[in-house]
Amino acid sequence: MIRIHIEKRLKAYNGIQVLRIEKTVTPGSILRVTGPSGAGKTTLLKMIAGLIAPDAGTIAVGDAVWYESAMKINFSPQQRQPGFVFQDYALFPNMTVLQHLQYATQDAAWITRLLAIGQLQTFAHHKPAHLSGGQQQRLAILRALAIRPRLLLMDEPFSALDVKMKTRLIADLLLVIKELNATAIIVSHNQQELDGICNDELVLGGEE
Ligand code: ADP
Ligand code: ADP
């Protein structure tokens, strides 16, 4: 399982500081990151994924310090990529549902199970433009799971789902996270939807 340590991480855009926090994420935990719009939730998630560099401070994921003072110093090729659910899904317009998953894994049985989890079996040959918003969001989640990540980073992953679908999906998701021995970080502005799911919390905003 993955331990993440964030030390006085600092990010500024155009000279305006948006993020300064210290946090250790315990392996196997499911961390909820909340805070008002603009608090830096997406920025934090992308920095943990290594998609954006912090301006100062360090982020350590597992044994590897990914960044130190904006300089990428150790990004081990052996390190498994995190699963990332982008807020805007970031799907491939020319790939079908099935192709999205095949791009991430060769394991046909795993793909079958993922399609069932996302209730997308009958949409396997649809491209994103022919999926509803909720179906697209489920595909984004399935694609993140397909690589069997040890670290799952999700940005408002349930925003387009109705309550019934959300409840069912979350139950499956919790099982998969456990099976994968993964650590999960979920960004949400809606605390209630994650009640009883997360066992740790980071609240952004309101810090100096
Ligand atoms: P949240 O996800 O909590 O809404 P974000 O991480 O998206 O917050 O953004 C934090 C702050 O940083 C916001 O004020 C936002 O406008 C700003 N910001 C985010 N990305 C950029 C960027 N690439 N360039 C300039 N400012 C940005
Ligand atoms: P989200 O939080 O919805 O995933 P982003 O992280 O892309 O979206 O952006 C969050 C906020 O940061 C938005 O208000 C957006 O306008 C602002 N932002 C994003 N990129 C830039 C940028 N390059 N320059 C200025 N502001 C940006």
From TrEMBL:
It comes from the Bacteria. Residues 4-206 form the ABC transporter domain. Keywords: ATP-binding, Nucleotide-binding, Transport. InterPro entries: AAA+_ATPase, ABC_SmlMolc_Importer, ABC_transporter-like_ATP-bd, ABC_transporter-like_CS, P-loop_NTPase. Pfam families: ABC_tran (PF00005). SUPFAM superfamilies: P-loop containing nucleoside triphosphate hydrolases (SSF52540). GO terms for molecular function: ATP binding; ATP hydrolysis activity. This is ATP-binding cassette domain-containing protein.
